[in-house]
Amino acid sequence: MLKRFSLFTVLLLLLGSTAFGQVTLVRKYNEGDSYTAKNTVKTDQKLTIAGQDGSTNSSTVVESKSTIGKKDADGKFSLKVDTNILSSEIGLPGGIKIKYDGKNPDAKDDNAGNEIAELVRDRIKANAKLSMTIVLGTDNTVVDVQGIKPGSEINPEDIKSEFAEQLKVFPGKPLKKGDTWEHEAKLNLGQGQILTLKRKYTYEGETSKSTVNSTRKVHKITAVDSAVTYSAKEGPFKVTKSELKVDESKNTILFDPAAGRDIESSSLIRVSGKIGLSVGGMQLDGDLDLTMSSTQVEEIK
Fold it and tell me: Could you tell me the pTM of the whole model?
């Protein structure tokens, strides 16, 4: 089961007081804003499928710069996203280990000459720097995705789905400290694979975040997952069994109401259990133990 995280993550937010001690969390994009964030994504997958070892692991650091354009006469606006893979380490079955250093992209590692390692490294290098423009409508839904690099495997429909998921995160009503809400979250793993999670959020209240020049007021939201289902859309295989459980889960968002978005977020989830796949009419059963973590921090001066 391959894993892919989107390289841009633009999360929510505008906080407005509607009653004493309450806030309403709403997505907001400020025209002309430009910000840079660093995202560290790690995965550790222990997988046995039909008796074969399919275990993988990875650690990737990506820098992204987002620039919000001005609204046109119809209220639409653009979000330009530039991403740069700073480093990546990937472990594949058979002891294959691949390293990529953005400062020295042509450097070879111990697997030089290995066909699989060279293929993966070349793909990372080819897609290390990407740029795209996402056009959003008046309701902040994606209406178009422009500039996707051919061969990058970025699917415009996945981008639309990711933004739609973000619109569902906050409950659209005033919140006070300790309030909770739930919704079904979908995590895109790439190649049509989806983890559907039952997620419970808690508004933890106002706190502060120290920056280089000041201390900024932020709002803290946490979340935990209590159930998970693995599925797949159209693709080379079908999921016939998903008997997974959530072993560990924690998510944290720090939202800056002045910026109108989160300036820091982290997530960790571990799921395990039995899965079944149908490939070309052949049934393949296996055991999965998957841990994924992500930490995103915006560079704030």
Answer: 0.86
